[in-house]
User: Which sequence fits this backbone?
């Protein structure tokens, strides 16, 4: 259920076309490249037949190799190249198939992209989009699985976006491309196949508005990226035990609309943040801190964070399952928050398993 | 670790070149990977695999010249390096299966093979990152005067990462005992080298650091072995690094068990040309049929045992999630 | 005043030798290098006559160029080299004169150092110390001033330490060198000249224990790195208006002893965190989140964070002053927390200025 | 911005080489930096300065051959590049003074000079990081077919950073209009090049990327100018990058106004040798005394005006802290 106060372009009312997240990404880029000659797309493997798991499909054919091209394995310099091109008035989209590889370009992103406009006294701007994918499927292991968005949230001058559904992916990517600032655009591999209602034309999902995806009374659950979907599944499980969970998707992590979250927590007095990353100094820490600051002196608020286990990601299946939050663990945590005096509860394994068959067509 | 012990009987690194030993090493790697490809479509293997089928001659040529005290550093396409240097086969197989007895206890996966008992350094899934690590391992050998060398394998793509020239410079400056080995298969995933590199003068470039550099156009196992064996004595005495670029061909697809000739970005006819230089076949020809049969039978038995070991081993229990984050 | 429950080696009782922070660093390294042949120190400029602002002074002379040496300008590979040497049994100390430069070696630190032990199934360890200095004096500007410790706190497998005084600097550096894990050791340029009581022999200030530097009733102030000193100055200013501030120094940021902080907040119900870095997803967010989680349902707690302004650091003096928390702004925030119903207060400018003449001899 | 306008009268980049113009540019830079050194001990300058005294011939030689549409990318030791390319002098001086009228409005400081009106790209305090940025700026020129080139200056130390070879490869691969200029003064801070680089074959190395590379052993201003002017027509037509290595000497200390010969890591006698090749003196000799005097007087007046402008300008108000974080 969508938040009543927000009228989103491309909501179900506007048309019934259903599109996959992966196709929404390429469609959005195509529309922006048509609209604006200064937009180009580059990065390792964007032009091969796998097309970044399909998310750059068709772009080479449509726009040719001058505007869609691969690079050497040189993430650091290629990021600098993107920044320089952006300073010269182009609008580069630089694609990385795994977010882990961004560690190779931190210097350019943190020391140049984020600071250029400020430290050069407003003389330049850096309209750069860095597309990255959080890798999750089976056996990705320690270096192909990280969600490192909080590092970018930490740095003034960078924007960060992590859409959870095809509708937002399309609109937020367009907004990122049109933004005059560097945007780290965080995708999630498991979202690629998910479908949502997506309008055909261009539209924007700009920074500054969290979305209430599902209204609830008893506990506020903030999900980040793919964890929005897991939280919605958890909310269904919680229904069985009479707990009504509100699910919020920040969509943009920086700038972060925490007001929507705070408003929700003012009602529920319970907050669970579910992240696709580690908790320590993570997005969840920031949200928890903001809520704690905002609600101080208003009466008790209970807060919990769940995210990656505080370990590297192991590929062995039992360990890997335990590494990630899932609908059952989210539901159990949310229940504990919502019903602090009740005996601990967890969904029974069969309904937890069934939860994975729940598909939600966004924009929620 | 049981897995490590299981491999002790196998010693591919005895001194001197020997046709049987080289064939056995090559054939063993080939067969292991073929078995991996066979098993892969079942869900027994728990992480994506990068086969080196066709490229085995390089790892075997280099490693056969090394001593046990020497180390190798490989890539995510690391089965050949790992096995050629004497890494435990049951340990590797169990790792692919995600088992507690795996060389990384199921916490690494196929891209993070390691066997420190055999001086096989851990491989990495981030291209190029192991190169400076190998150089640091070599620096420690120099500091401790062990006389050991480190053979550092990388793909052609890895040479485009800035850490590669940084590493070359540092290794040359400090005369570190590193054998840099570039396995140039002409592709990074599906991108041909011509779309990534301005020229093909890698050897000339490396030579400007004062590092002797040599290209092997068809990566003949024995030629590589002879070259490395010849360079080692000087290296052990502080002569500094060397570099070899070995032209080769990845027969299969980048990741997974199949091939990728239908995708249209490279041609099957080139494969056929490379298959005529198949290192396993070449090594086989040097042996009598009976000798080969004996080796082959031993290899099949060893592989079958390793698969059985992997299959029968338990998964790590859930508590293992939290161990070894810190030492 | 020290926390009564902790008996620190090297406290005033143990001897009256006073040493500067900068000298405590080099003394600690010298003692460890004497103790253990596998310890070596390298990094750009460690062996020149400026000796990293004096912090490596004398080491080259004592241990020779095989154990104390400079490097090329290749932070990425040099970090890999350090990791490889550590895996081979050495104990490298890799020095960076500015923390900003760590952005060049994030890949090695995050993707290898932090994960090696885990993803290699316990077969290796990485006893590496990365010494880095937060630059602050005048006009350092956007790229020579960052405190990026929270990025490292975020990553499991890394330890992070940020001592605020010479006593802790010496003991914590020794602990870091003897630790079998990678430690990011965060120094602060303005602390280099500060003095503390420092015992002559080797001693350890290991992870896991925050220190209560000053006991107080009305508000808990957590300071990080140099901000401990600023917080102590603020506490003196607050005394004038009858507000009693407790000042806590976590010393080690990962692993983080938040229990000591939580205990204090349980008494004061007010928490101010003062960081040498940005707030968003920063160390302060983590501390705030932990306190909020721990104190949920126990009655209201007020929390505030102050840190760098959410901008790059400007060199122009008026802007630069406003960029950093200082004793006056800390005192004003703490007052607002402690006396929510009183009119806002700020120390008068002359006593705020005088506060800078207060010197505190640690370990506090 | 007032500062930028103030510099419009100064146009050091007219076509053709001209002894007066080259002398004026050299002398102006020298005098500006001498004045900075003179003022530095007062507290008027608000960020650390890196003087290029002695090295000016390189920037002037390159920039004099460029057109206004061409861009330069310099380093934190960037006064010479900035001024030689026509960056606003009052804007620079005000920036050093931390003033609102500074080229970066007091929010950059001495290490982050910029003047986009003159196509002076922003400099950086993190060594090497501007190199790929300059390459990207050049790529945009190619994409937009402007015919403009980018001259990218760096120190010898910067060539050790991995982004340098990564940038070379990419620029060569895409035939981007970049003039890579290495100002090799033999030191990074106090570390001599021999402690950092395995060999001195930088030009040979760069050439392996297919990039024409040339070393100037004494960095003669006119020789550099002639070389660049000769290369430009082809570059403007898609000929790809070139590289020059200019051997030079930093007369003063790494940072700050003084010198560092008492520290013992380099000798004053080498300075004396380099001073005999002082580019300002050499250029001066090509002029009649009267012509020089006229130029000198104009320069002194311009510098005095710039200092006055900087002194009299206001500091940015505290609200400015929060502007321009985002565009
Ligand atoms: C730093 C980094 N960038 C990109 C990737 C994605 N990637 C995985 S393998 C590979 C190709 C590497 O090519 P090469 O080094 O030639 O090795 P090969 O696979 O051919 O053996 C790429 C680009 C990665 N893993 N790490
Ligand atoms: C990435 C990085 N590492 C280290 C430093 C510290 N540092 C500042 S200037 C400098 C020397 C650079 O030498 P070079 O490139 O030769 O330029 P020069 O100062 O000689 O003009 C160093 C090491 C830095 N600013 N950035
Ligand atoms: Mg390859
Ligand atoms: Mg230099």
Assistant:
């Amino acid at each position: 259920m969508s938040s009543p106060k927000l009228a989103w372009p491309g909501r179900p009312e506007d048309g019934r076309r259903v599109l996959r997240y992966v196709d929404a990404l390429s469609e959005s880029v195509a529309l922006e490249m048509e609209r604006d000659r200064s937009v180009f797309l580059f990065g390792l493997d964007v032009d091969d037949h796998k097309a970044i798991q399909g998310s750059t499909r068709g772009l080479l054919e449509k726009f040719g190799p001058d505007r869609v091209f691969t690079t050497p394995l040189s993430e650091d310099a290629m990021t600098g190249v993107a920044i320089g091109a952006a300073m010269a008035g182009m609008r580069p989209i630089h694609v990385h198939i795994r977010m882990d590889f961004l560690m190779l370009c931190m210097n350019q992103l943190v020391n140049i992209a984020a600071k250029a406009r400020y430290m050069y006294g407003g003389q330049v701007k850096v309209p750069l989009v860095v597309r990255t994918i959080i890798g999750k499927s089976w056996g990705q292991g320690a270096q192909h699985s990280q969600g490192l968005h909080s590092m970018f949230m930490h740095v003034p001058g960078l924007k960060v976006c992590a859409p959870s559904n095809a509708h937002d992916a399309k609109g937020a990517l367009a907004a990122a491309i049109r933004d005059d600032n560097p945007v780290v655009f965080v995708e999630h591999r498991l979202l690629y196949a998910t479908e949502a209602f997506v309008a055909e034309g261009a539209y924007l999902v700009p920074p500054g508005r969290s979305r209430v995806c599902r209204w609830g009374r008893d506990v506020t659950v903030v999900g980040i990226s793919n964890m929005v979907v897991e939280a919605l599944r958890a909310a269904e499980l919680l229904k069985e035990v009479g707990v009504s969970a509100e699910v919020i998707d920040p969509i943009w992590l920086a700038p972060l609309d925490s007001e929507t979250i705070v408003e929700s927590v003012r009602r529920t007095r319970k907050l669970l943040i579910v992240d696709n990353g580690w908790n320590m100094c993570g997005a969840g820490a920031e949200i928890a801190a903001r809520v704690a600051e905002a609600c101080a002196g208003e009466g008790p608020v209970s807060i919990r964070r769940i995210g990656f286990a505080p370990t590297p990601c192991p590929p062995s299946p039992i360990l890997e399952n335990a590494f990630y939050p899932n609908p059952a663990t989210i539901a159990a945590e949310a229940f504990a928050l919502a019903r602090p005096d009740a005996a601990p509860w967890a969904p029974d394994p069969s309904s937890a398993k069934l939860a994975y068959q729940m598909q939600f067509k966004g924009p929620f | 670790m049981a897995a490590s012990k299981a491999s002790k009987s196998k010693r591919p690194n005895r001194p001197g070149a020997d046709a049987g030993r080289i064939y056995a090493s090559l054939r063993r790697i080939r067969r292991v990977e073929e078995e991996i490809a066979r098993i892969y479509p079942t869900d027994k293997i728990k992480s994506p695999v990068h086969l080196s089928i066709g490229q085995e001659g390089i790892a075997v040529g280099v490693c056969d010249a090394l001593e046990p005290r020497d180390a190798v550093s490989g890539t995510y396409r690391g089965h050949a390096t790992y096995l050629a240097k004497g890494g435990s086969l049951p340990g590797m197989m169990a790792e692919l299966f995600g088992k507690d007895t795996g060389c990384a206890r199921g916490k690494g996966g196929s891209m993070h093979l390691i066997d420190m008992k055999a001086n096989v350094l851990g491989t990495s899934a981030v291209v190029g990152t192991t190169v400076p690590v190998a150089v640091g391992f070599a620096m420690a050998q120099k500091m401790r005067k062990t006389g050991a060398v480190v053979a550092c394998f990388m793909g052609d793509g890895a040479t485009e990462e800035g850490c590669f020239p940084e590493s070359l410079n540092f290794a040359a400056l400090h005369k570190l005992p590193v054998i840099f080995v570039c396995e140039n298969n002409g592709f990074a995933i599906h991108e041909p080298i011509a779309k990534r590199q301005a020229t093909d003068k890698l050897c000339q470039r490396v030579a400007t650091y004062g590092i002797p550099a040599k290209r092997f156009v068809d990566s003949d196992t024995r030629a590589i072995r002879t070259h490395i064996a010849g360079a080692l004595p000087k290296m052990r005495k502080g002569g500094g690094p060397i570099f070899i670029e070995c032209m080769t061909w990845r027969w299969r697809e980048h990741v997974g068990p199949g091939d990728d000739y239908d995708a249209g970005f490279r041609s099957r006819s080139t494969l056929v040309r490379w298959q005529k230089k198949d290192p396993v076949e070449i090594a086989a020809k040097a042996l009598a049929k009976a000798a080969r049969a004996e080796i082959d039978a031993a290899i099949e038995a060893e592989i079958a045992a390793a698969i059985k070991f992997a299959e029968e081993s338990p998964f790590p229990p859930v508590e293992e999630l939290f161990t070894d984050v810190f030492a």
